[in-house]
Amino acid sequence: MPELPEVETVRRGLQPVLEGATILSVTLARLALRYPFPERFANRLAGRRILGLNRRSKYLLWDIEGDDVLLAHLGMSGSFRIETPEAASATGSVPGAFALARSRDTRHDHVRFELQGGTAIIYNDPRRFGFMDLLPRAEMERHPRLVGLGIEPTSNLFSAGTLAALAGRRTPLKAALLDQGIVTGLGNIYVCEALWRAELDPRRPASALADPALAETLALAIRTVIAEAIEAGGSTLRDHMQADGTLGYFQHRFAVYDREGEPCRRPGCGGTVTRIRQAGRSTFFCPSCQR
């Protein structure tokens, strides 16, 4: 599933095209993705201008002229494709920095937004786990999908004190960090990477975060790994404006994720990356240097 850095690079890739643009029409290839589309979804968007494009956790938020906000989630395999009049086909760019390739098979094109000026934005999703919703702006913060979300790791509010709130948990560090009510947007990949950078065993109890020095070390690791991942995707988009965007650069920097059996990349460690299962998910770490 795309994580926060991937969703943020999607937002950055779409922003120059969407912000200020007027939606001429919306075409739906089906009545539902993971969930049914809102009633009169296409009609409610036609003729309206997009005022801004924001992100909350792993949700994209299109600020629509009037009273609505379009909420979009990419699910497991979703992506947006930008088709310009010069490249009006599946060869259009796919903004994002995904570790796994995104589909270009037009059979999985489910939503098409025609913009004034001839550009189109197409939502493609082979597994159809993504979804879209229209929220009244005044009720957005109380919406079930947004209420209760914690602090963004990219926010100035995120600190060691944020992580200290996890110190009362009996769960392992890995599971505690995936709790979206404390720190939102962290997913499996970047939690594994951050714990490696902080030299912390993912099986260690979250109560260890009562140590201010340890909490500060982990907070710095989280901020750094998220910032580097976003920058890697952002660099891809800036340097190759027509690049397909299906592979960002950060996956080449993974220290432990998906590197089971490989030597640990920490200088002087000499350990081997191991994979275990925690709460039904794969955890990658180095038992030698992560304590």
Question: How is the secondary structure organized here?
Answer:
Elements: H1 4-18, E1 23-28, H2 41-45, E2 50-56, E3 59-64, E4 68-73, E5 79-83, E6 109-115, E7 120-124, E8 131-136, H3 160-164, H4 173-177, H5 188-197, H6 212-239, E9 274-278, E10 281-285
Antiparallel strand pairs: 1-6, 2-3, 3-4, 4-8, 5-7, 6-7, 9-10
How are strands sequenced across the largest beta sheet?
1-6-7-5
User: Under CATH, the topology of the largest domain is which?
Assistant: N-terminal domain of MutM-like DNA repair proteins
What is the straight-line distance between the termini?
28 Å
Spell out the helices and strands N to C. Answer: HEHEEEEEEEHHHHEE
What about the largest sheet? 4 strands, antiparallel
Low-pLDDT regions: 234-247
Oligomer: single chain
What is the class of the largest domain in the CATH system? Alpha Beta
Number of structurally distinct domains: 2
CATH superfamily of the largest domain: MutM-like, N-terminal
- Shape descriptor reads elongated
Radius of gyration: 20 Å
